[in-house]
Amino acid sequence: MKQLIDFPYKSALVLGLAKSGTAAADLLLNQSVKVRVNDMKTEETDPIVTDLKRRGAEVVLGSHPLSVLDGIDLLIKNPGIPYDHIIVAEAEKRGLPIITEIELASELAEGPIIGITGSNGKTTTTTLVREMLAASNVPVKAAGNIGKVAAETVQSMGKDERLVLELSSFQLQGTIKFHPNVAVFLNLFEAHLDYHKTIDNYLEAKSKIFANQSEDDFLIYNADDEKVSKAAQSAKSQKIPFSLKQHLENGAWADDNAVYFRGEEIIKRAEIALVGEHNLSNILAAISASKLSGATTEGIRSVLKTFSGVKHRLQFVTELQGRYFYNDSKATNILATEKALSSFTKPVILLCGGLDRGNSFEELEPSLSGVKAMVVFGETAAKLTQSGKAANIDQVVHTDNMQEAVEAAWKLSEQGDVILLSPACASWDQYPTFEKRGDMFIEAVHTLI
Length: 449
What we know:
CATH architecture of the largest domain: 3-Layer(aba) Sandwich
Keywords: ATP-binding, Cell cycle, Cell division, Cell shape, Cell wall biogenesis/degradation, Cytoplasm, Ligase, Nucleotide-binding, Peptidoglycan synthesis
Helix content: 25-40%
Largest sheet: 9 strands, mixed
Catalytic activity: UDP-N-acetyl-alpha-D-muramoyl-L-alanine + D-glutamate + ATP = UDP-N-acetyl-alpha-D-muramoyl-L-alanyl-D-glutamate + ADP + phosphate + H(+)
Function: Cell wall formation. Catalyzes the addition of glutamate to the nucleotide precursor UDP-N-acetylmuramoyl-L-alanine (UMA).
Number of helices: 16
Protein name: UDP-N-acetylmuramoylalanine--D-glutamate ligase
Oligomer: single chain
Distance between the termini: 30 Å
GO molecular function: UDP-N-acetylmuramoylalanine-D-glutamate ligase activity
Number of strands: 20
Shape: globular
Strand content: 15-25%
CATH class of the largest domain: Alpha Beta
């Protein structure tokens, strides 16, 4: 079994179970660290709780007494738990280090780490990097907000495997020594201010992706994003910019004909399967990270010719306490939502609504037979409420934004339920694109405990 080297902590509190907390507790128990777990919503009968107790962990459920910090020298918190939470605030008063499981995972990782962050495009870029490396016969695994939790993934990785991490600002804020060999900073838009309070705090959290890098490392950054470019200048690592607007000899760029990296033509734009200007920016970042991590031009080209993307089209996001979350934000009409609903046999809690194009939703009503509850939002909320009632759905909840919608769906859900975002409407009343709407859904899901 791999061992944590120079790990100074003897006892740790894991605050919030979910996937990241469970993986963190598992890793620590495997390292013979004394573990205490504190969670508000998990039940005593949950198999995870039973297993943790069997392995020697102390588990405190249903409340957050300050005494859970007694005798503790490290706090590992679920990324979505804010720093003004009673336990986190008390830990700060006591001078305890506060981390997320990303920091813990990086302590155990033996091979190179590629960290990817940004307000948008993280999943697409992470997936591209993983696929480009794999197509180049470079051993690689992806984790973080994509696939398995990092603390689970690193325990079975070899020394030569690259670890590609999709990283949120919530995860990055809880790092101290985290040090990716290649860092990617895609973009920065105003988001999560309820958590970070200010855009400057949000940028500071994101910038921790390169804070501990040295001159032997690489920072790939978006030269078209003013805030990102300015923040990148403080990095000690080698800076590799990418741009859709300018020719960059030491970076990646695109013109009307092709995509380039450090003067080499990588692929003709006409050969790229993945469409969208925003995805071209993600492609430039992915090419840079992959090239610097050992990918071949042939491997990169093979991926770009075939990868058409999976995000926002019945995309499985995660499973939390027996609830299965799917992002189908690209369902901008009734037909698309009907197809999505027909994909599930489990009970569905449907999140829907958006731009009012003047149509009714009577056509959707026959497809709502497997829907146990609806959470509606946007200009069409009233119409969708009417259709939900017509389909004999007893619980229809009206919310104002995606964060509220996800929280409402969580409260309505039970183990075994599917929580599906499939709006049946365009996004433009509240979000500039369906991609942004889907990203907000994913980010809201990851704030649940």
